[in-house]
Amino acid sequence: MINDSQIFIALIIALAAAVLALRLGNALYE
């Protein structure tokens, strides 16, 4: 069973990873 806290943490990690990927992609693109 998945807890709401685990889903919340997973969303935060996914969001942070997406932000880092966008920043890295922009840095490499320029």
Characteristic key phrases:
thylakoid, mainly alpha, single chain, 30 residues
Task: Please give a structural write-up.
InterPro entries: PSI_PsaM, PSI_PsaM_sf. It comes from Bulboplastis apyrenoidosa. It is a single-pass membrane protein. Its main location: plastid. This protein is mainly α. The chain has one domain (1-30). The protein has 1 helix and no strands. The chain has one helix spanning 4-29. 0% of the residues are buried. The mean pLDDT is 94.
Please provide a brief summary of the model.
By secondary structure, this protein is an all-alpha fold. It has one helix at residues 4-29. The relative contact order is 0.12.
Taking all Cα atoms into account, the compactness measure Rg is 13 Å
> Major beta sheet, specifics?
none
Strand content: under 5%
Query: What is the total number of structural domains?
Result: 1
Arithmetic mean pLDDT: 94
Dominant shape: rod-shaped
Kindly report how far apart the N and C termini lie: 44 Å
Low-confidence stretches: none
Give me the strand/helix succession: H
Oligomer: single chain
Helix content: over 70%
How many DSSP helices?
A: 1
**SSE class:** mainly alpha
Query: How many strand elements?
Result: 0
